[in-house]
């Protein structure tokens, strides 16, 4: 009846949403929830709860699993990428619920009828988990769900609402049952036959195939509880342990692995839209509720088929049952591994980029060129017209920036721009701003993009290239692959790859350890496990990149004094990553800190006749990039003109007069 009612209700709501709106208007959900728990109290039979005392350790484990352990799985669920987000959040809330009020006990009773399941233990866990759960749920949601999605939950108010809506009706129903015991007991006298049980458990074989993501939640709970019971059995006496008794293990496994839908609905109702649309939160949980009944029906049917012969030959089949139990545990372990692998694969897959100009993507507002492979590159021009310019620059922006963050010509006075005749083009690196992503981006491919941009804009045979911070690796690429096109180059606080072979191991290790611990881990992942960069920087278990998070510790004294000069970025806030963080920030990390095609420390002087000069500018108090490695580069590559700024931080380019100093050094050789 429950399955038919749930499916019928969803179908009716889809066909005629007006009825659902009418029910919400007259608070039908609150009234029905109150009634459901009065009925649940009426159906709670406690006669045999005393029989469960013999298996109290198993009951304690079950309660801990239901109320304390399983809510931790909500952290895993929140990593799933699924739209709308309410589907994921709803399943996460569902994992914090107590066990079902009826189906777990019913399945255990079926085991009792045919195979000896401990229904008294199941009933005790059901009763206690629901009563305690109503008190614990608000804190679980606040700790595991609210923090994960960045929402504040009024825990005290939610607790008070659940007590009034759920706990009091449940106790009231139980009191009514005890007061009118005879009438209730008479109504429950139902004759159960073997054929009835088999028809019930054969039903799932004809059911539909449900979404794997929802199915995984119940599989993981089953596998976790199964392995925990097996481990507790081994630790407390083996075959003689109370955890090893089949009837206790079956009851705990079924009850501890199920979650109740009515409590979930009541909780969502009390949250008043804090996590999104209530209907979208509940909908996947309806499917999960049906799935857990169907899957556990299969499981019980499996137990029944294995154990029915033992009713006639119990003594001779003890060894067979042990072998079957071992096989079952192995099967559940395999399911757990498959489930974890499926979850892991899903978690590390980044969402597809929202390409500018595509349906659902950001609009195209910038001027763009079409590259050799069909991608578009967005750019912005500054300074004098390129037709009259004496010197032409290509600026490569840094991490989490875009074409609007050019800090050279844009910060020159109009008089200096006219005097020097400088023109600058700043472009969005692939995946940033309005430039199409390049899934195969490398240092070389970015260099070729720069060369093609220069050719399509008609910048002539030679041009200057300037790279700031993470834009520095593009300058190294230009020095490697297209030195013949350069009139000069400047590296401004260029980001270092600590795994360049040319660095002495002790020096790179020392510099690496100057980074924040969370940045050290982020760089390790980018270098050794690049396919995990997206997951590492979006998961909630460990802190991701401190640079991406703009942790205050990474700014030097000068940086903090210059931060106000970055206020202009509010005008284009969000533009840099509007197509998705993976193809912008995370792709940048994979390219800069991954395995390079060459070692910059092996480069030879591309301008032996001094027809162009290369400059490296660095602040000695830079906390983003260790200055000691830049000093080593300057010593190793003596043809680079090194400028170390005393007291300078990573943002020295925004300091007054720096832009002019950098430009004049490139053009007229001033150091």
UniProtKB/TrEMBL annotation:
<feature type="domain" description="AB hydrolase-1">
    <location>
        <begin position="394"/>
        <end position="653"/>
    </location>
</feature>
<feature type="transmembrane region" description="Helical">
    <location>
        <begin position="328"/>
        <end position="348"/>
    </location>
</feature>
<dbReference type="Pfam" id="PF13593">
    <property type="entry name" value="SBF_like"/>
</dbReference>
<dbReference type="InterPro" id="IPR038770">
    <property type="entry name" value="Na+/solute_symporter_sf"/>
</dbReference>
<dbReference type="InterPro" id="IPR029058">
    <property type="entry name" value="AB_hydrolase_fold"/>
</dbReference>
<feature type="transmembrane region" description="Helical">
    <location>
        <begin position="33"/>
        <end position="49"/>
    </location>
</feature>
<feature type="transmembrane region" description="Helical">
    <location>
        <begin position="90"/>
        <end position="115"/>
    </location>
</feature>
<keyword id="KW-0472">Membrane</keyword>
<keyword id="KW-0812">Transmembrane</keyword>
<feature type="transmembrane region" description="Helical">
    <location>
        <begin position="56"/>
        <end position="78"/>
    </location>
</feature>
<protein>
    <submittedName>
        <fullName>Putative sodium bile acid cotransporter protein</fullName>
    </submittedName>
</protein>
<keyword id="KW-1133">Transmembrane helix</keyword>
<dbReference type="InterPro" id="IPR016833">
    <property type="entry name" value="Put_Na-Bile_cotransptr"/>
</dbReference>
<dbReference type="GO" id="GO:0016020">
    <property type="term" value="C:membrane"/>
</dbReference>
<dbReference type="InterPro" id="IPR000073">
    <property type="entry name" value="AB_hydrolase_1"/>
</dbReference>
<dbReference type="Pfam" id="PF12697">
    <property type="entry name" value="Abhydrolase_6"/>
</dbReference>
<feature type="transmembrane region" description="Helical">
    <location>
        <begin position="127"/>
        <end position="146"/>
    </location>
</feature>
